[in-house]
Design goal:
- Belongs to the semaphorin family.
- This is Semaphorin 7A (John Milton Hagen blood group).
- Residues 1-298 form the Sema domain.
- By secondary structure, this protein is mostly beta strands.
- The chain is 10% helix and 36% strand.
- Among the domains are: 1-222, YVTN repeat-like/Quinoprotein amine dehydrogenase (Methylamine Dehydrogenase, Chain H); 355-440, Immunoglobulin-like.
- It has helices spanning 172-181, 308-313, 439-469, and strands at residues 15-18, 21-24, 39-42, 47-48, 58-65, 74-82, 93-101, 120-124, 137-144, 153-159, 165-171, 212-215, 219-221, 231-232, 238-241, 247-254, 257-265, 275-279, 284-288, 293-297, 319-322, 325-328, 359-363, 369-374, 381-386, 389-394, 402-407, 416-424, 427-438.
């Protein structure tokens, strides 16, 4: 229908269906001009935004939000627009959130009868509190509803001119507070009892002078950025973020901060991920590239080492330790997890390191040798020990997949037992255990056992013959 389907393929469009109401940014006719508008095309009377309230908007996402009082129900849409500040140091675009009242009936004059009268917009700010880096370009938005509308979350994916990206999280309670309490740009008079952009029950909306506030102080969530941010409503938010290398970072929000749980390489050729959709009921993530679509379970508990400490240290809300295995919560809810600040270390049994755990390796004198230990957690420290002496530490804060120790020329002092130990949250585990041996000694040990066995067999044969002829 008109205003619902675009006349030509166009990515700068939004359509929101809320019961009998339909909201859209699509032109109703090809002769409507080039200025985009946000419209109500079905239900409650047709309305559209004034051509002066947005400057070349690029729409991102829209949603509706129900309040306790139906006359306070709101519409929110997120967009980028040209920055009115044209100074060289100012960003070219600004990210915004706009608010409209669902009960808006338009203005009273002939010029405003078909226009929204409750339009308000505010600036979305996304700043890294550590580096103070700004992220100005809103790329995508994902909504997470809650029982109380004030606690419903907005996950915004931002980029900047340096190619970095971040996810900032806002609550609709904070956004609502900004629109209700912040001063109105360009208005210096006393704050009215009912601010512009609001609706009083049984009365006409208060016309908006189109102010621009500032939606400040979002909670910062660091991440590698990506094309989408689906999240599943378990204990602890679990966003899935995708960089431009065909992989997915599974992230969890916990009481003590944000943790990147695991990185999953989805496409073997590192095809960029174009979209991600989460099926909440089945806990399945659908990942699409330009050539294929894959289905990934959110409970990939096999990605962690199948021991108690590694499973619990992963802090994956979908997984926990039970019955000697790292199990999905879809199989059982009676599992050991570490999603809060409670002490858990004593709940896992410690395993003994046995002498035969060491892998014997034959190395010739004056040869080169690499000791390799795979980095499984960027929150752990990794150390190489030679005969219980520390010889190498790896900084896991930098992107790397292995902790190497290189011996350029093997001497007799280099022979012995090497152990790679990871330590995280008070738990230590030996990941690699190698026993470097002299090549000749190694060959002697390998040949010595068969020789001893053969000697015993010969002795038994002599004894048996002696008894036979006795």
């Amino acid at each position: 229908g008109r205003g619902i389907a675009p006349f030509t393929p166009d990515s700068n469009t939004l359509v929101v269906v809320d019961g009998q109401d339909i909201y859209s940014t699509i032109k109703k006719s090809q002769q409507n001009g080039k200025i985009p508008r946000f419209r109500r095309v079905r239900g409650g009377g047709e309305l559209y935004t004034s051509d002066t309230v947005m400057q070349n908007p690029q729409f991102v996402k829209a949603t509706t939000l129900r309040h306790e009082e139906p006359h306070q129900d709101k519409i929110y849409y997120f967009f980028r627009e040209d920055n009115p500040d044209k100074s060289p140091e100012a960003p070219r675009n600004i990210s915004r959130v706009a608010q409209l009242c669902k009960e808006d009936r338009g203005g009273t004059s002939s010029l405003s009868a078909s226009k929204w009268t409750t339009f308000l917009k505010a600036t979305l700010i996304c700043v890294d509190p550590v580096t103070k880096g700004n992220f100005n370009w809103l790329q995508d938005v994902f909504f997470v509803p809650a029982g109380d509308w004030r606690h419903s979350k907005v996950y915004g994916l931002f980029t900047n001119t340096w190619g970095s990206s971040a996810v900032c999280v806002y609550s609709f309670g904070d956004i609502d507070n900004v629109f209700r309490t912040s001063r109105l740009k360009g208005y210096n008079g006393p704050t009215p009892e009912v601010k512009p952009g609001q609706v009083r029950e049984g009365q006409e909306p208060i016309p908006s002078p189109v102010p621009s506030g500032c939606c400040c102080c979002p909670r910062w969530v660091s991440g590698p950025g990506g094309t989408s941010c689906p999240r599943h409503p378990l204990t602890g938010a679990v966003p899935s973020l995708s960089p431009d290398k065909g992989s997915i970072h599974k992230v969890v929000e916990l009481p003590d901060g944000v943790q990147n749980i695991v990185e999953i390489q989805v496409f073997p050729n590192k095809d960029p991920i174009q979209s991600m959709i989460l099926d909440h009921a089945r806990a399945v993530l659908y990942v699409g590239s330009s050539s294929r679509v894959l289905e990934l379970p959110m409970d990939m508990c096999g990605a962690y080492r199948n021991n108690c400490h590694s499973c619990v240290l992963a802090r994956d809300p979908y997984c926990g330790w039970a019955n000697g295995s790292c199990l999905s919560l879809a199989l059982t809810r009676d599992v050991l997890q570490n999603l809060n600040l409670d002490s858990w270390q004593g709940s896992c049994q410690k395993g003994d390191v046995k002498e035969d755990d060491f892998h014997n390796v034959s190395v010739m004198l004056q040869s080169r040798y690499y000791l390799n230990c795979s980095i499984e957690s960027h929150y752990a420290t990794y150390n190489w020990y030679h005969e219980d002496m520390l010889i190498k530490s790896c900084n896991t804060s930098h992107p790397q997949h292995d902790c190497f120790h290189f011996i350029p020329s093997v001497s007799r002092e280099h022979y012995g037992r090497y152990v790679c130990v990871s330590e995280e949250d008070g738990f230590r585990q030996a990941l690699v255990k190698e026993h470097l041996m002299n090549h000749q000694r190694f060959l002697w040990q390998r040949g010595h056992a068969p020789a001893v066995l053969a000697s015993w067999l010969q002795l038994l044969l002599v004894v048996a013959l002696a008894e036979l002829f006795h």
